[in-house]
Design goal:
Number of strands: 14
Largest sheet: 7 strands, antiparallel
Order of helices and strands: HHHEEEEEEEHHEEEEEEEH
Radius of gyration: 19 Å
Number of helices: 6
Length: 358
C-alpha cells in the first residue's frame, strides 16, 4: 500500500512460490528502482491464496531480475552458511528492532530512512542497510567474514550484498546496487566496506538506538490476531522479510503447499507517502482513513500510524498494512491493531553482542 513496493526482491519476499522447493522461497535480490515517487500499485509477488495468482505491471528490469530469481529455485551445490543456533530468537529481535538503520551508515553524507528498518544512501550505486533480514537457507550465499564478524555474500551483475550474522537466522544486510552492468567487483567492495564499518559500530549498540516506538512486524501481526480473535499462527510459520525493502518491517504467516509456500496473513510497517498509490481504494475504518488493495484472492488494509520524521516527500508517513484472506478479515485485523498501533513491542533483554564472531 502506498509504499515503494516496487522491487523485484520485494515481490518475491512478499508472497512467493518457488517450484520444487516445498516450504521455501526463492533468493532475494536488491530492489529495482522505479521512476517517480508515485504511480500504480507496484509489482507484487505472485500471491498464492486460494487458487489465484496475481501480478501487477513491472518494468523490464524487474522482468530480468525475476528470471534471475527463478533460476535460483534449485538448492545450491554447496550449503549456504547458517547462523548460530544457540541464540534466543526474541533476544535477537529485541536487539535488532532497537537499532536505527541510518546510524549504521555513519560514513554516508546523506541518508534516507526508507523504512523503520532500512536506510539508503547515494544514487548510483545505491547503498542500503536492512536490519533483521531473514536468511532463507535455500538462498545461495558464500561465507565472507568482515572485521571479525561472521558474514555472507551474495552478488550479481548489478548488485552485491554482505550480511552480518546476528543469530536466529537473521542478519543485517548491506547491499550496493546499480543500473550499470559489469560492476560486481566494485559493488562488493562497497557493500563489504560498509558492513565492516558497521561491525565496529555494533560493538557499542546503545549508541545506535532508534526513536520510539520500537516495533517489529511479527509482534504487530500477533497483536492484530489476538485482539481481533483471528488465529494468525495456527499451523503457520511466521518469518520476517528477506529483502532490502523489508527486514523486520515485514512479517508473513505462511504455510507449505505443494511446490512451495503461500502467505495467509501478513503485517508490514513502512515509510511512504500515505495515499500516493492511485489504484488503492480509499475508505474509512473506525474514523481513520484507510487504503484498500485487493486482488480478488486476498485483501490488504493500510493506514497512517504516525509521521516518520523523514523530510523526503516519498517517506513522510509511517504506514501499517495488514493482509487477510478477504477484506472482511483484513478489516477486522486492521480495526483491532489501530487501537495499539503506536505501542512498542514487549520489552525483552536484547542479545549481546549483536553480531556473531567469526
Amino acid at each position: 500500500m502506498g509504499t515503494r513496493r516496487n522491487s523485484t526482491l520485494d515481490t518475491l519476499d512478499d508472497n512467493s512460490k518457488c517450484p520444487n522447493i516445498r516450504g521455501r522461497s526463492v533468493p532475494a535480490l536488491p530492489q529495482a528502482r522505479t521512476p517517480g515517487r508515485a504511480g500504480t500499485k507496484p509489482i507484487e509477488t505472485p500471491v498464492l491464496i486460494g487458487t489465484g495468482v496475481y501480478h501487477s505491471p513491472m518494468r523490464v528490469l524487474a522482468l530480468a531480475l525475476i528470471a534471475t530469481l527463478l533460476s535460483g529455485c534449485t538448492s545450491p551445490a554447496k550449503p549456504t552458511p547458517t547462523t548460530s543456533g544457540d541464540r534466543d530468537f526474541d533476544a535477537v529481535v529485541a536487539a535488532l528492532r532497537a537499532l536505527d538503520p541510518c546510524a549504521l551508515l555513519a560514513d554516508a553524507r546523506t541518508t534516507v530512512r526508507s523504512g523503520p528498518f532500512a536506510c539508503r544512501s547515494g544514487d548510483d550505486p545505491v547503498l542500503t542497510v536492512t536490519v533483521g533480514v531473514w536468511l532463507d537457507p535455500v538462498t545461495p550465499r558464500a561465507a565472507a567474514p568482515v572485521a571479525g564478524v561472521r558474514a555472507v555474500r551474495a552478488s550479481g551483475d548489478r548488485y552485491c550484498s554482505t550480511t552480518l550474522f546476528t543469530g536466529a537466522d537473521l542478519g543485517i544486510a548491506f547491499t550496493a546496487d546499480t543500473t550499470k552492468a559489469g560492476q560486481e567487483n566494485t559493488l562488493c567492495r562497497v557493500a563489504a566496506d560498509a558492513a565492516a564499518a558497521a561491525a565496529g559500530l555494533l560493538a557499542e549498540p546503545d549508541e545506535l538506538t532508534a526513536s520510539a516506538p520500537r516495533q517489529d512486524s511479527c509482534d504487530l501481526l500477533r497483536r492484530a490476531g489476538r485482539d481481533a480473535a483471528v488465529d494468525v499462527t495456527d499451523g503457520l510459520e511466521l518469518r520476517f522479510g528477506t529483502t532490502t525493502a523489508t527486514g523486520l518491517g515485514l512479517c508473513q504467516a505462511r504455510e507449505a503447499v505443494d511446490g512451495g509456500w503461500r502467505t495467509r496473513f501478513s503485517a508490514r510497517v513502512v515509510h511512504t507517502r500515505f495515499g500516493s498509490i492511485p489504484n488503492e481504494r480509499p475508505d474509512v475504518l473506525n474514523g481513520r482513513d484507510v487504503r484498500i488493495y485487493t486482488t480478488g484472492e486476498d485483501c490488504e488494509y493500510g493506514w497512517r500510524a504516525r509521521g516518520s520524521g523523514e523530510t523526503d516527500p516519498a517517506y513522510t508517513d509511517t504506514v501499517i498494512q495488514v493482509r487477510g484472506r478477504d477484506c472482511a478479515e483484513a478489516a477486522k485485523l486492521a480495526a483491532a491493531l489501530m487501537t495499539t498501533d503506536n505501542e512498542a513491542s514487549p520489552a525483552v533483554t536484547p542479545q549481546r553482542p549483536i553480531t556473531e564472531p567469526a
